[in-house]
């Protein structure tokens, strides 16, 4: 169990969270047998040394074979359990409070949440939970981190948001998505705050909870949890969202609407991102995507000198004055209707003007849930005249947490902070300036083909757009890509193999298109149905500039270490220096051992490949690692009497001793 103050030593948590599969997943090389070095040696010698396409494909083939079982596609989700009704039981006084029973135990008892059979067969780690198989989706493997103390969300505040954000950062590369189990009362505040704090987010973060505890038979928590896990593990939705009662909603657009109903959350000013019924319908075009070429990061500072002031008919100037007093630095002013303020109350207006002159940022948001603020009425216009800025249709939760986030950016000027407050940075607001005048190419083609119905149209889009994108990428034609976007094609769309435009651009080496894709929010994390990511594609194609760019954007390889060991030793044995460089650029350690305990250096020596040895030594690989027979690379070279290599290794050994 992990406390709010310290989730524990990350390395120990990583141990606990070892998702490595059991030995029954085999690839060609593994099937040779773990200890049979002769076989291994022969295999490496037999490999065709000349044929480039075969070389290109060997990593892909290995990946395919590795994942050849029916259940082959998996995704990993980290669940951060903060508390809330979902895990509550009646306490001695008969009031609901967090249960003392670990949630994981409860999950293990529930066959809807835990596939005991799969767990026994496939994972060695007892802490891994496995969701039962859901047709057409990846198998979701998940782990639950239970914070202590578990909290009713009414007791949560910024320190908890910071803790959650930092934990997501800590484990970002090890998981495909994150689910936060949370109480419903302040869930919208947490989801809003996280949406701003998690900068350049590229993976799903889904907040959910329930109205009835998971310990009760009628709980809505089980389905909320299952839905959140499936979405987090399968969909390219790189936002902080809320999943509740079969709806996926942008987190910073949510408001808690109901104390009693299962349908507790609403998104009054933005359509739901997905609806889960007989099918899972995600509105991919409405997903907000970070369009900067930057790595994911967390802003863990928040400015707490912010507040919400709701205007009411007889509010006094004393109330307004005391609210605006130092140290207040930012105020969300909840006004009437479309942002209207009592224009006949000069006493109040004076107080606001004074505060604004003292550089307090005042943001005008509406008390109405639906719609936003504008300058339609004189009663509203008066506020812009005294420096109050427009909050458009932000929810109070989003406006408050955004202000707290923006004010903590000390590198920005006051005007820049105000400008950001009025700009849509995470999909939290819509201004009138947004026009949706795009044409829909697929609809036009559907009409010509006399297709009717939404389903047929969606199928057509799934065939038409990726095919057109692919041909534009191969031709290197960015203008064509832009034109297609103008015709309504979603650049993030995937084909039937779950490959996106970035996969193609990486494999054919189109750097400018890769850059364009990243600037337009295409996911670097998506893995196709053969588990290949765009970064992996760039590695297989030895596209070094593209690998650098993708890494800059936070892309990382997610393959099992042993798989990577196998492809590295394979490359070292064949003298594929460029490939070794590709993996190094992609962040892989060249000391990685393979499935039979060899390092790339061992493989290079075993194959008498002096070029590989030279390259690996130039990268300062560790000479002391021993194979399963307890031999270092130099001992293997001695045994094989490879004099040139022995000399090289010895001189490198001496150099490293001198340093
Ligand atoms: N349904 C809930 O989770 C309400 C609870 N009081 C909480 O917010 O933690």
Descriptive overview:
The structure is a single chain. With 659 residues, the protein is α/β, with parallel strands linked by helices. The chain folds into 4 domains: 74-298, Rossmann fold (3-Layer(aba) Sandwich), CATH 3.40.50; 306-422, Rossmann fold (3-Layer(aba) Sandwich), CATH 3.40.50.40; 442-532 and 541-547, Ankyrin repeat-containing domain (Serine Threonine Protein Phosphatase 5, Tetratricopeptide repeat); 561-657, Ankyrin repeat-containing domain (Serine Threonine Protein Phosphatase 5, Tetratricopeptide repeat), CATH 1.25.40.20. Helix content is 40%, strand content 13%. The protein is built from 26 helices and 20 strands. Strands 1, 2, 5, 6, 7, 9, 10, 11, 14 and 15 form a 10-stranded mixed sheet that branches. Strands 17-18-19-20 form a 4-stranded parallel sheet, with helices on both faces. A two-stranded antiparallel ribbon has the order 3-4. Strand 17, helix 9 and strand 18 form a beta-alpha-beta unit. Helix 9 (317-324) packs parallel to helix 10 and helix 17 (501-507) packs antiparallel against helix 18 (511-519). The longest helix is centred in the last third of the chain and has 22 residues, at 454-475. It is globular. The model is unreliable at 6-57, 64-70 and 433-438 (pLDDT under 50). Its EC number is 3.5.1.1. The active site is at 85 (o-isoaspartyl threonine intermediate), 184. Keywords: ANK repeat, Hydrolase, Repeat.
């Amino acid at each position: 169990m992990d406390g709010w103050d310290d989730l524990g030593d990350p390395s120990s948590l990583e141990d606990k969270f070892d998702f490595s599969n059991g030995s029954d997943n085999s690839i060609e090389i593994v099937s040779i047998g773990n200890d049979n070095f002769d076989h291994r040696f022969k295999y490496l010698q037999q490999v065709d040394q000349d044929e480039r396409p075969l070389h290109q494909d060997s990593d892909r083939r290995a990946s395919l074979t590795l994942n050849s079982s029916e259940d082959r596609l998996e995704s990993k989700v980290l669940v951060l359990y903060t508390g809330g009704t979902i895990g509550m039981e009646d306490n001695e006084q008969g009031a609901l409070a967090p249960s003392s029973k670990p949630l994981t135990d409860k999950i293990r008892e529930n066959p809807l949440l835990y596939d005991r059979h799969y767990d026994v067969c496939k994972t060695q780690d007892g802490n891994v939970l496995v969701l039962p198989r859901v047709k057409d989706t990846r198998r979701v493997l998940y782990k639950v981190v239970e914070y202590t103390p578990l909290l009713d969300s009414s007791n949560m505040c910024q320190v908890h948001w910071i803790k959650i954000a930092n934990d997501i950062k800590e484990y970002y590369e090890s998981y495909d998505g994150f689910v936060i189990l949370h109480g419903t009362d302040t869930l919208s505040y947490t989801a809003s705050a996280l949406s701003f704090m998690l900068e350049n987010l590229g993976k799903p973060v889904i907040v959910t909870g329930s109205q009835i505890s998971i310990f009760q038979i009628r709980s809505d928590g089980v389905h909320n949890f299952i839905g959140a896990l499936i979405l987090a593990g399968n969909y390219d939705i790189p936002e902080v969202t809320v999943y509740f009662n079969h709806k996926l909603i942008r987190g910073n657009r949510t408001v808690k609407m109901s104390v009693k109903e299962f349908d507790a959350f609403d998104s009054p000013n933005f359509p739901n991102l997905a609806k889960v019924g007989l099918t899972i319908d995600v509105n991919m075009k409405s997903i907000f995507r970070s369009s900067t070429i930057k790595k994911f990061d967390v802003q863990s500072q928040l400015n707490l000198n912010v507040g919400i002031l709701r205007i009411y008919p007889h509010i006094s100037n004393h109330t307004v004055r005391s609210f605006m007093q130092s140290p207040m630095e930012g105020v969300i002013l909840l006004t009437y209707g479309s942002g209207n303020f009592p224009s006949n109350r000069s006493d109040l207006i004076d107080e606001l003007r004074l505060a604004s002159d003292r550089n307090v940022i005042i943001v005008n948001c509406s008390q109405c849930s639906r719609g936003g603020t504008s300058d339609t009425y004189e009663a509203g216009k008066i506020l812009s005249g005294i420096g109050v800025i427009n909050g458009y249709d932000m929810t109070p939760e989003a406006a408050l947490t955004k202000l707290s986030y923006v004010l903590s950016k000390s590198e920005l000027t006051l005007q820049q902070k105000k400008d950001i407050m009025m700009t849509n940075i995470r999909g939290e607001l819509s201004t009138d300036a947004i026009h949706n005048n795009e044409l829909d190419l697929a609809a036009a083609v559907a009409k010509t083909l006399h297709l009717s119905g939404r389903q047929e149209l969606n199928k057509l889009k799934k065939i038409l757009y990726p095919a057109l994108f692919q041909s534009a990428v191969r031709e290197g034609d960015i203008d064509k890509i832009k034109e297609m976007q103008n015709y309504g094609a979603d650049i993030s769309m995937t084909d039937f193999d779950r490959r996106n435009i970035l996969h193609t651009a990486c494999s054919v080496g189109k750097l400018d298109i890769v850059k364009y894709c990243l600037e337009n929010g295409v996911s670097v994390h998506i893995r196709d149905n053969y588990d290949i990511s765009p970064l992996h594609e760039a590695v297989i194609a030895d596209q070094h500039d593209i690998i650098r760019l993708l890494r800059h954007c936070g892309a990382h390889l997610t393959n099992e270490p042993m798989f990577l060991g196998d492809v590295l030793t394979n490359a070292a044995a064949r003298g594929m220096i460029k490939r070794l460089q590709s993996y190094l650029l992609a962040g892989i350690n060249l000391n990685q051992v393979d499935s039979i305990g060899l390092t790339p250096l061992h493989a290079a020596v075993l194959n008498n490949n002096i070029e590989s040895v030279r390259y690996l030594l130039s990268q300062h690989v560790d000479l002391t690692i021993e194979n399963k027979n307890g031999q270092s690379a130099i001992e293997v070279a001695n045994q094989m009497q490879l004099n040139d290599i022995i000399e090289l290794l010895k001189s490198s050994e001496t150099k490293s001793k001198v340093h």
